[in-house]
Design goal:
Blueprint (H helix, E strand, L loop, with lengths): L1 E6 H6 L32 H10 E3 L5 E3 L6 H16 L7 H21 L24 E3 L2 E3 L1 H13 L28 H13 L5 E3 L5 E4 L1 H4 L1 H4 L3 H9 L3 H9 L5 E7 L10
Parallel strand pairs: 7-8
Antiparallel strand pairs: 1-8, 2-3, 4-5, 6-7
Amino acid sequence: MKLRRLTLLAILAGLSPFSQLSAAQPEPWQYWLQHDPSSSVQVSHSIWQRLLSRYVTTNEDGINRVSYADFDDTGKAELSHYLRMLSQIRPTNLNREEQLAYWINLYNAQTIQVVLDHPKKKSIRSMGPLFAFGPWDEPYLTIENKPVTLNDIEHRILRPIWRDHRLHFVLNCASIGCPNLSLVAYAPDTIEDQLTQAETAFLLHPRAVTINDKDSLVLSSLFDWYQTDFAENEAQLLSYLAGHRANLAELLAGIGQSDSIDIDYVYDWDLNKAKN
């Protein structure tokens, strides 16, 4: 856990427009900047949709969980086929909307494959090579003859090319603390609405923002790790979050300018597996 204290004066000083984000962004993998704006090629994600419908469920706690243990030979074969199919596609020949849906669905599907390959592990952090923090730097995929890792997809393709903070709400790391794995595959014609819906759903959930009985904040570590994707500084981050959470806006409005707010960043790395 990471604890910080922020005064209201600092918060008020950070109320500049959210769009003015920090320049501290990851550098794009230049090769994947290629796209074809005129392309009408459509990538089918119907297999992925069947798997989501079959193995992902919404729970009363608002967290979508995956029935990893229920994957039978047919389900595993379908997932492998879907990943092979996506790997054989040339995303540089797609338009931007098709590319965006392609990379997000590929990331989430490959993450499920990683968990299925490690059935005895309780957290994705222990599913990588010896002494590695997780599987994110493993080149599981080969796309257009290039080895591609999960970190490549998130930090060298999606984040630097699209520069959309909402991407953090649609990429799932198979953990309780992560934004939900969507029940619906991402599609180019609906992805804008899906991004917004994912943002709203996560920000309204306690694992994103919680105000405890001492009026201190417990925030998802996503907002610490990727603060520059959301705001220039921590004060602007709170302003962004308050725009989605009325109780946080009320808290900020109700404290004195000299008062301080404790911020505790937490993340639950337990596997998002279905409950027995």
